[in-house]
C-alpha cells in the first residue's frame, strides 16, 4: 500500500470524525459525490497543509455536489 493511499485512509477516518459520522458513511458520501478519486489525488497538497484545510475543501465540495444533486 502506497503512502498516498495510507494518507487517504487517514484522511477519510479523520474527516469522518470531523463530520460526526462513521468512516463508512463518509466514504459513501464521497463516493456519491464522485469525490473519492479527487480526495485521494490531493495527497500532495493535503498532506503538507493543516488537515483542517482538507476538511474545509472537502466540506465545500460535498456541499456543492449535494446541492447539484438536489
* Oligomeric status: single chain
- Indicate the radius of gyration in whole angstroms: 11 Å
Query: First CA to last CA: what distance?
Result: 36 Å
Could you tell me the number of beta strands?
A: 0
How many domains in all?
1
Mean pLDDT: 94
Tell me about this structure:
The chain has 70 residues and is an all-alpha fold. It has one domain (3-69). The chain is 80% helix and 0% strand. The protein contains 5 helices and no strands. It has helices at residues 3-19, 23-32, 36-41, 43-46, 51-69. The longest helix has 19 residues, at 51-69. The radius of gyration is 11 Å and the shape is globular. The N and C termini lie far apart (36 Å).
For this entry, give a set of tags.
single chain; 70 residues; 0% strand
Write the SSE topology.
Elements (H helix, E strand, L loop, with lengths): L2 H17 L3 H10 L3 H6 L1 H4 L4 H19 L1
Helix pairs in contact: 1-2
Outline of the structure:
The protein has 70 residues and is mainly α. 80% of the residues lie in helices and 0% in strands.
